[in-house]
Amino acid sequence: MFKLTILSAVGLLCLSLQTNADQHHDNGIQSNTNPNITPGFDIVHAKISLQGNVATFHMAVSGAAGKNKPGATGKLADSHVFSYVWPTSIDSSEVGFEKNQGILALAVTAHPDFDDTPLFDENGDGNLNNDGDTWHSHWVVLKNNERCGKGALAVVDIPKGSNPKLPKTWPGLPILLDSPGWNPILQQETIEVRVPFDNISAVTQQQHDAVTAGLRVNESVHAPLLCVVNVMDVASGDLSLPGKIQAD
């Protein structure tokens, strides 16, 4: 009888854990596992949910999130970036850029050859300039750029001599990239970032997708500076942004 009670309790616990996991992956975009994709970048679920003025960007993969990072090259030019990305239909002006600049996306990235978050000490060692290899968040604005390859996307460059509107936490690189300091949480198979918005009504009901990708710093280090060169997975399969940003 005692053994049966223990087995029953274990069974209920396992069922509860499975139920909670299933609920965690409710709604949003569901994506099938692909054995040809590295598990840490194989997207199985993505959503952006709202509570008050805070949006939670969530992505789940079939393996350990954040386990794989690019190797160091020892220089900025031609160095590599790994990323988890949520492309959205939110206007670029909602996070401090000019209006209608391209596809606004939240990205969680790691890159050992440079640090583009000069205001933050992600690894906690007292040095603000050596944190590129620690997973961190960015806003980026993306557009097609044939210089990166046919049909390829790139982070939008800032032309020399121009003076566009930029977020207060822009890191100084000549591209539409912001380093707002929102801490990503990578735990087992999930990546989450909590992002507050000043104008939540401009975010509600907007569309989103999820992408895992590799980027490369161009050899010229400008025009373009940062190209998307290796799309590993797209949650929707076609970057159609089928997810809707809404309250849980």
Walk me through the structure:
- By secondary structure, the protein is mainly beta.
- It has one domain (30-247).
- It has one helix and 15 strands.
- The chain is globular, with a radius of gyration of 19 Å.
- Residues 1-23 have low confidence and may be disordered.
**Stretches where pLDDT falls below 50 for ≥5 residues?**
1-23
Number of strands: 15
Structural class: mainly beta
Q: If helices are DSSP runs of H or I spanning 4 or more residues, what is the number of helices? A: 1
Radius of gyration: 19 Å
How many structurally independent domains? 1
Distance between the termini: 42 Å
What is the 3D form?
Answer: globular
Largest sheet: 7 strands, antiparallel
Mean of all residue-level pLDDT scores: 90
The H-and-E topology, N to C, reads as HEEEEEEEEEEEEEEE
Helix fraction by DSSP (H/I, runs of at least 4): under 10%
Strand content: 25-35%
